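Q: what sequence does this backbone want?
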């Protein structure tokens, strides 16, 4: 039996255990916001201890976390050294997730299995890769027994807010400096590039008044509508800006939250909305932000008495392929094609992730893990998020085989 077949067989033999591990992780909520993620890290560390994996707990100071808009973050590093020389390969997945929202037909934290699929928030993105990465490393150590290099598991809790207190914090503190890294992803493609993301909060000020005498006030909502129309109009222009990266099309602007006013019979004096601008890898984030600010300022100026405040919430750079990622790409493509029975394209994704922070630190990486062909199929960030357990099984095998090659 070949080394690869032995790895596959070990994963098959322990797959029920891997599924139970994932269920236990899904059953501890990590809704962000509010972002109280330390309890999940504690539970993960406890479960890893059962496999003989010692997880270092790196708690981000409470004041720093609260200033950032979350409640608690404890990032985990599991270091598995095999011998001098060779590469150190990090495997990163994030535990924080958006709240479930409405419309679920399964318990968002039940981790129920129906027709070979596990349902629950974070089953696909990205607690599934806590499981795939952990069990790939367990298989590697049981079968391949590498004699050099090292693997690190990075289980972090700040992806939804941008990653600065997740991987960014571990890298900034000098707690890790791997040679290569694989981050949580989906099973049918290896991602080498992704979009950037700019998020901004816009506060539109008018002047409150009684609705019976509206002329005594300045309607902030009408001002906001005028600004929003100007912003949405940009999406038509963005369609003319196309990316050369396969899998990424064009920029897009979305307004995801809006609030304002005090009562039905009051002219609203203040409206706040939050926008999300996806940037293709070819765009310059500084220019993008300046242009958005210009559009908002010009639209506001057209409405007498309206003033605006603009606050940047997040600026996540795009991920661009680093030349050193070739060994990762080729290993995952080779084993992905063998195990999934179809070509494994290397491409970009319109998502943004915290993987860019490794790239900015000069660490070549790719995105690959357990999940369906598309975000849409996974129901990530929607009701009834789910994971096909056969994708989990095969992705775990792909990662174990790739690690075996890279550490050989």
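A:
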């Amino acid at each position: 039996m070949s080394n690869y077949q032995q790895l596959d067989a070990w994963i098959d033999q322990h797959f029920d255990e891997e599924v139970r591990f994932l269920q236990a992780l899904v059953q501890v909520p990590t809704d962000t916001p509010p972002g109280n993620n330390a309890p999940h890290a504690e539970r993960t560390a406890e479960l890893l201890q059962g496999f003989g994996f010692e997880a270092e707990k790196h708690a981000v100071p409470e004041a720093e976390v609260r200033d950032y808009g979350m409640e608690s973050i404890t990032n985990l590093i599991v270091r598995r050294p095999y011998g001098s020389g060779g590469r150190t390969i990090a495997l990163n997945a994030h535990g924080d997730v958006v709240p479930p929202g409405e419309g679920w037909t399964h318990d968002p934290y039940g981790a129920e299995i129906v027709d070979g699929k596990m349902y629950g928030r974070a089953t696909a993105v990205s607690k599934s890769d806590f499981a795939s990465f952990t069990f790939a490393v367990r298989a590697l150590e049981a079968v391949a027994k590498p004699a050099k290099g090292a693997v690190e598991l990075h289980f972090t809790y700040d992806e939804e807010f941008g990653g600065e207190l997740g991987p960014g914090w571990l890298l900034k503190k000098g707690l890790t400096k791997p040679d290569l890294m694989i981050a949580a992803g989906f099973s049918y493609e290896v991602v080498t590039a992704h979009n950037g993301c700019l998020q901004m909060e816009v506060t539109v000020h008018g002047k409150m008044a009684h609705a019976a005498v509206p002329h005594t006030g300045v309607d902030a909502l009408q001002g906001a509508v005028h600004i929003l129309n100007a912003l949405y109009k940009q999406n038509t222009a963005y369609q003319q800006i196309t990316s050369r990266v396969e899998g990424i099309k064009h920029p897009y602007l979305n307004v995801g939250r809006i609030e304002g006013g005090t009562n039905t019979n009051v002219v609203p004096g203040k409206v706040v909305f939050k926008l999300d601008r996806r940037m293709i890898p070819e765009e310059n984030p500084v220019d993008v932000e300046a242009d958005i600010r210009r559009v908002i300022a010009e639209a506001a100026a057209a409405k007498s008495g309206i003033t605006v405040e603009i606050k940047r919430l997040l600026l996540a750079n795009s991920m661009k392929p680093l030349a050193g990622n070739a060994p990762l790409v080729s290993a995952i493509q080779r084993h992905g094609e063998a195990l999934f029975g179809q070509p494994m394209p290397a491409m970009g994704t319109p998502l943004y992730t915290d993987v860019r922070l490794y790239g900015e630190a000069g660490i070549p990486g790719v995105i690959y893990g357990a999940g369906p062909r598309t975000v849409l199929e996974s129901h990530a960030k929607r009701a009834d998020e789910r994971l096909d357990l056969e994708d989990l099984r095969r992705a775990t095998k792909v990662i174990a085989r790739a690690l075996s090659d890279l550490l050989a």
